[in-house]
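=== Given protein ===
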Amino acid sequence: MTAGPAAAPVPLSPPQRRLWLDLARRGMADQDATLLAALAFRLTGPVRPELLRLACADVVTRHPALRTRLSDNGTGLPEQTCLADADGAFTWSRRPLVPGTVEEFAERVLAEPLTLVDAPLSAATLAPLREPDEWVFVWTFHHLVVDGWSLDLVARDLGAAYAARSAGRVPPGPGAVADRDYLDLLAAATAAETTEQHRADLEYWRRVLSAVEPVATTGRDRGAGVRRTSFDLGEPERVALAAVADRAATSPLVGVLALYELVLSRWFGHVSPLIAMPVLGRSESAEDTVGCFANVLPIGCEVDEHGFADLVDRLSDRFFDAMDHPVQFDLITGQAGAEVRFAVAPAHIGAPSALWHDVTAHRVHDVVGTRAHFELVLQIESDAAGPAACTLLGDATRWTARSLAAFRDDLQDAAARCLRQPDEPLLSFTVASGAVVPRFMPPAAPRAIAEFPELFAERGDAPALSCDGVVWTYRQLADACTWLADQLAARAVRPRDRVAVVLGRGPWQIAAAVGIMACGAVYMPCDPTSVGRTRAALANTPHALVITEPAYRALADAPVLELGQAPPVDVGPPRRHEPAGAAYVIHTSGSTGRPKAVEVHHATLAGTIADGVAAGGLTERDVVSGHCSASFDASLWEWLPVLAVGGRLALMPDEVKTDPVRVWAWAAEEGVTVTLLTTSLLMRAVTAAPATHPTYRLLQTGAEAMTGRPPAAPCPIMNVYGPTEGGVTATAGLLLDDRPHIGTVLPNATLYLLDEWLRPVRPGGIGQLYIGGGREANGYAGAPGATARAFVPDPFGKPGGRMYATGDYAWLEPDGVVMYRGRRDNQVKIRGVRIELGEVESAVETHVAVGTAVCVMTAERALHVFYTGTPTPSGDLREHLRTRLPSAALPATLTHVDRLPVSINGKADRRALTALAEATPAVSTTPAGAGPPDVIARFWCEALGLPNVPDEADFFELGGDSLVAARMCARIGDHFGVHVPLVTMFRVPVLADFRTEVEGRVSEGTTP
């Protein structure tokens, strides 16, 4: 049987394109062993190898897809044609006797890569197990030419062809697919992506997925292989599964999918995980055609308080809805913004063996590639009666053998419980025991601030703090604290009265903080450089007194205590007070436009001080820098622990605070041993870090999420984490490897990782961080409603206890460190300042010309505001905001729109606005006519459809996808006569970095 002359080349079909772009992104477009599938048989009887080879050739001749040859056409995407016959379309090899099982041999063969361009895309391998009557035969295919349905067709036709040749007959020919018909099927699938219906389907996915938040992930690279574990569904579960499916008029397969969705939601603290579901993607005319037609669609459904039967019903509706809107998975994930980490892989368990004339062929389960393309895949194996067994395939970089076994056990437990009582509310289903994140640091006794003035006095003339060449001794600091206590008493300030402090940087800041809290009053710092915020804090938070200095007297309301520069003299010994209740109030960003006053009690402060000493290993020999503003609660972490142990606090000059690369020289002059910098400032500082430093022994960082590998520095770096409502810090840890973790739980903190229903997530599962055990703040002063929402009953602590819902999400590593994932609300941090996007929006809306405003933050950590109403010059709006917002909260752009986009749930579509903000950057500074850089910027603009692209822009954040990137890399390579592989774009997606890469290739003359 022959196939006829070769047909003209055609482009890759949409499913093939999806796979190719994934390979190119991973740098595997030359050779690949990660997207392979194999038919594996144990053959028993008088196997005739030459007849088996001819039978393979018959099958290849029958199916054009198996004769596919890819060729490079210079566009970044190869084209394909079909060879005229089986000669050169597949490779054939015989191996010597092999030890082990058929499955083990198949996996070894499957690990051997196939060359993809100008080479066969399948390989047949035969080896004896016990010659001459027992053999193993493995036929490996690349997924570019087969899908799961195709393997059944190949197995069927291979048996028929071998039986025919063994009987001396011509192999069956009817039903063979003409090459042109096959290529026309591929071309038709490509043409379908240009239709109005396809655009409508893609819009459907954008709408649906705009309301679905992707499941948080650990962010690790995948590709280190998979771990496997399996279990069988017992007969009772199979019967119950069929009954539940019948109620929903759906397949039992959807029931297993619902069990998977339920357990994923419990492990990862998310109500609606997206699961990649393979779909056939074939028309009736292609049912007997081998080829790559399958697609993957993301399916997800909210796991709420209703019963399991209800979940199956709703998930079935979602599945059939998705089937009505077929769009290739790469377009959904690229253009609709979905991030899918989990998948299912249905597999059919057919007849265990077949007779090939006089040879019995026992087909083992089809073997898949060893690389994990998703974090977790549930392979569902079904027979004629429905799902019978499940195999979990977990990414080895994400799943340990123990965690994968635990997930398996939870899945089995879910099947037993939910199928036994399908209408029982799912709120009763939990997967973990024990909620408290374990502590690894030794205990640290709390240190009460009431003791500080006496401790200071005992230390006499030892230096306590320094600022701009002025040094205060501990005796002077004790006198200042005692004098302030006397002044407060003389002005009838009572314990628990709030005292506002509006002072510039200097020793009196620290004396005021300690003196106020030590005598039982409540310390309330304000930043005099943020005029509008200070006035709002003073106006909205009742206080008994304002401590200030002449430069800021105009900001204060009466009564006022005005301070001079020098410390007081002739002050008596300190008097011990027994403060209780609130110790201090810190104002944080508020969603109503009014900063929230977080009130923290003395017990929390005492634990924070002790934890600061323990985490930093502080002693009287340490000199700690004071970098943070007094209105930033991290200042207490800097000031109080070092003073508790008798070290020295060195207040950082303004010129060093604003230019952190100067920190190294200043620290050496001051003898500083420990410094806390916000993460963004630390990243700037290390760009000029020396290889060694004469005084530093520890750098601490926090207040912002650290992404990527921790930077190199001349001393160890410790990451600290904690919100104001959790007593400044809750975790801390040295960054000793590549993980940007937030450390382990501090000795006096209690941390929980919980799901949406306040149930513990599994170790390794992602949940929201809650802080309790007495470390949480009192609440928000004057805001009982906001307090009740944020400080919820603690079901794991003492009766009547509360815990603070941080809004931060994390997971626990096996060694006990906590990995921070991010936030799900509208709070962000910029330059270490916590900003509520709602506060920015409220401030913009106070302008008479503005109707509604929405604020978003781009990947560059810049704020962008979109508003309705009357178009107004940005300068006018920005001036209006200067007295209402801190400098870090001032938007980079203010853009008028006729109307704001909304998502499917009717809320402002922040994802769409963020994309719009990132797609309208300022003009690139690249000079015209500058050679390759100018040409490259032009290629970017043309590919993305934008008038200008700045050097700092990220290709994918501007809306680019793999397909656009592939074509653009090919065009740039053709222009300069060099090879620019697609993986370059994924490795260096920022224009400036990409330009440098291409310039290097041009100078080296790197040819294709």
Summary: Residues 1-5, 216-223, 921-932 have pLDDT under 50 and may be disordered.
